[in-house]
Design a protein that fits this description.
Layout: H1 5-15, E1 23-25, E2 37-42, H2 53-67, E3 72-78, H3 82-94, E4 97-103, H4 112-119, E5 123-127, H5 129-136, H6 138-147, E6 152-154, H7 168-172, E7 180-185, H8 189-197, E8 204-209, H9 216-224, E9 234-237, H10 250-263, H11 272-284, E10 293-298
Helix pairs in contact: 1-2, 2-3, 3-4, 5-6, 8-9, 10-11
The structure holds pyridoxal-5'-phosphate.
Pyridoxal-5'-phosphate binds next to helix 2, helix 3, strand 7 and helix 8.
């Protein structure tokens, strides 16, 4: 999209984004942790609302909108969507109208996410499961485009090839790129962006699938990141979805609570908890070379867990 550092910083300043995010040493008392050098890159601290990888993915799209004076964005997501939440806040701040196509029902109980969307002036439209899927297919999209001819359309999860370059600044934040980078996978966009923008192939990327469905995520990543080198240094581990998206076994919840107690790092079970579970298991399996630097990319996302958490989340 022809964006540069200046576009990044102008937008970051306008929204109060703080990067680089800290990369902190992390030393849990887990079996195998002492054999490697563990770090957590705290993208959850980038901004109190536009958390983690949502900033990384959205900034090129928002910068493009600003440069071309696009004042209306249409996007898609569920009733707890971190993507819509971050996007709605950013649009509110930038004076862009957001139409949010939400998978759900108007008369269903309102979620904390939807309350925030309303507060930030997003126009929410509800679609049932079937209609929601239709609206994102070429025919359904064309319908919406006829309806909103001047709007910029952004896929669910912000998964668009236009956003791939958004991940490039993350690499620049490392003094030395780590041996291993571990991150959760939803749409696959973050992984695809990291693959597309890395300068060298030293870092092994391990995606932890938050969704059920072998191979489906690999093809999403490959669709986004049209790699000439399919054997590039990455894979997705499918063992830790715990039953699927937004499903969470009691053991997973417990792990999240314990990590929060022991380290002060907040995690939710939809994405980050699964990465923590994966990391713990991979350490037991001795999956990393001795003394390897292993970074867990904390992608944020705590707002989405508010509906399930007893205490609620302060943001
Ligand atoms: C959206 C989200 C993801 C998934 O990112 P993708 O780019 O869709 O794979 C991971 N973690 C958190 C916290 C998220 O909010």
């Amino acid at each position: 999209m022809g964006l540069n550092n200046q576009h990044y910083h102008e937008l970051a300043d306008a929204l109060g984004i703080v990067t680089p995010s800290p990369c902190q040493p992390f030393s849990p008392d887990w079996d195998g942790a002492e054999r490697v050098r563990l770090y957590v890159k705290r993208d959850d601290l980038i901004h109190p609302i536009i958390s983690g990888n949502k900033w990384r993915k959205l900034w090129p799209v928002l910068a493009h909108a600003q440069r071309h004076n696009i004042r209306h964005i249409v996007s898609f997501g569920g009733a707890h969507s971190n993507h819509l939440h971050a996007l709605a806040f950013a649009c509110h701040r930038l004076g862009i109208t957001l139409t949010a196509a939400v998978r759900g029902y108007e008369n269903a109980p309102v979620t904390p996410t939807l309350e925030d969307l309303a507060r930030w002036g997003a126009q929410v439209q509800f679609y049932d499961k079937v209609k929601y899927r239709y609206q994102q297919q070429p025919e359904g999209l064309a319908d919406l485009q006829r309806h909103y001819p001047n709007a910029l359309f952004l896929a669910q999860g912000g998964a668009t090839t236009d956003g791939l370059e958004g991940l490039a600044p993350l690499w620049e934040e490392f003094d030395t790129p780590p041996d291993v980078l571990l991150l959760p996978i939803g749409s696959g966009m973050t992984l695809a962006g990291l693959l597309a923008s890395r300068q060298q192939r030293h870092t092994r990327l391990i995606g932890v699938a938050a969704l059920q469905g072998q191979d489906y995520l690999e093809s999403l990543v490959n669709d986004l990141y049209n790699s000439a080198n399919q054997s590039a240094h990455w894979h997705i581990d499918h063992r830790f979805h715990c039953g699927g998206f937004a499903k969470s076994a009691p053991a997973l919840r417990q792990l999240c609570e314990q990590l929060n107690r022991d380290t002060g790092i907040p995690v939710e079970p939809v994405y980050s908890g699964k990465v923590v579970l994966a990391l713990k298991t991979l350490l037991v399996e001795r999956a990393f070379a001795p003394q390897a630097s292993v970074v867990w990319l904390h992608t944020g996302g705590l707002q989405g867990a508010r509906a399930q958490s007893r205490q609620g989340l302060q943001i």
